Request: fold
Amino acid sequence: MTIQKRLWISNLILILITVILLIGVSLAITENFRKFIGFPPYDEQRQPPVLNRTLLRLDRSIMKTAEAEPDQFLNNDYLKQIDDFLISSHTGLIVKKGDKIFYFSPFLAEIDTNNKHILQQQITKTIQKPDDDTIGITETLYMKTIPLTFSDDSEGILFLVNDTTAISQELKAFKNSVIYILILFLIIVISINTLITYFLSKQIVNPIIRLKNAAQQIQRGDYNFQLKAPTRDEIGALFQSFEEARKQLKKSEETQKKYEQNRNELITNISHDLKTPITTIKGYMEGIMDGVPQSKEKQDKYLQTIYQNVINMESLIEDLFLLSKFDLNQSFYQFEKVNIKDYLADCSEELQFDLQEKGIKLKYKANYDKQKLIRADRQQLKRVILNIINNAINYRKERDSQIEIILTELEQEALIEIRDNGRGISQNALENIFGRFYKEDKARSNHSPGSGLGLYIARKIILDHSGLIWARSEAGSGTSIFFTLKQVQAKDS
Reply:
C-alpha cells in the first residue's frame, strides 16, 4: 500500500471517529437539555421533573397554603394569581371540592379537544382514587395530584397539569439546530481534513517520488542532476544526504573513469617504452648471431648497446613498481632525521664520476646551517635527485653541460635547486612536466629519452614529504627544478 493511500485511509478513520464522537456529544447535549427544560427523559416518561420544579418554586405559596389555609383555594383572586404564575411554566390548575370542579384553569381550556377529553377521564379516575403522584396522561400532558382537606372537613384535590407541547417544539427545534450544526461541523471537518491530507500528501509523497526518480537516474548511471531540499525538516535532511551520496557516486565514477583512462594510457606507454629497447636488443642480438660485428671492438659496442637498453628497461620496471605502490596508497617510507647539507654533499660526490664520464660538470653550493635537520626517507630522496638529474642529462647540450645543486636555508624549510644549462623547456610544456608519462616529444620516439615517469615520481615523493616542487625554464637557457623539505628540531621524532 502506498503512503498516499495510507494518508487518505487515516483521514477517513479520523473523520469517522469525529462523526461518532459528535453524535455522542449531540445526544448527551440533547438529553441534558431535556432535563434542563424539565422535559421527561425517554426512560422516565411517568416522572416529568417539570411539575416538581414548579412545586418547588411554589413551595411557600401552594404547599404551605394547602396545609395551613386550604380554604384559600376557594378564593378566586388567589386562584387567579397562582394560576397566572403556573401558566408561565405551561402548567394549569384544577381545584376539586367534593365531587365538583371548583376551578378549571383557562390555560387547560385551550388545549386540543382530544387531550381535554383524556384529561377529564383522568380527573374522574383520580376523583375516585386520589393519588399524590405524578402521572403521564398523554405524550404531552402530565398531572400531579395534591390531596387537601378544607375547613368544613370536606375533601379536595389540587390538580397541576403540565402541557409539554411548547417544550416539545422547543426541543425539536433544538434537536434540528444541533443536527444542522453537526452537519455543518462535519462538512467543515471533512473539508479541513481533506485539504490537510492533500497538502500533507504533496509535502511527503511528492518529495519521495522525486527521490525515487533520482534513484532510478542513478541506477541508469546518470549523475548529472541536482537535488534541492524542498524543506528544512527531516525530508530536507534526507534530500541533503541523498545529494551528498549522489556527489560521492559521481566523484567515484569520475575517479574510476580517470583510473581507467590512466590504466589504458599506462598500458599504451609501457608497451611503447618496452617495445623500443626490446626491438633494439633483438636487432643487435640477431646481428651478433649472424656474425655482423667482425671485430671485437664492434662486438663490444653491440653488447654495450644491449646492456644500456637492459638498464633502461630495468629502470622503467622499477618506476612502474613504485608507481603501483603510489596508486595503491602503500606506505613504504622510512622517515628519519637527515643532515641535508652533508647528505647533498655525499650525493654530489657519488654522482661526480658518472657525470664527468658523460662530459657534464657537477657543482654543489650550500648556504645552510649544518645543525638544522630535515625529516626524510634517504633512499626516496636520492631517487628524487637522480630523477631530476637524469632529466637534465637527457636534455643537456652537446657541449659544456653543467648541473648545479644549490641548497638554501629558508625560515622553516630547506630549499634545494637543481639547475642545468641544457636545452630548456617551453612555457607550454612547463606546466605538464610533472605529469605521468609526459614527454615534450609527442611522437615518443628514440629522440625523446626517458620513460616520462621520473619527474612525476619525484613530485609524488616530495608531496609525501609535505614539501613543494616546481620548475622554471626558458627554451635554450636551461631548467631549474626546486623543491622544499620541512625542517625539524633535533629532539623531534
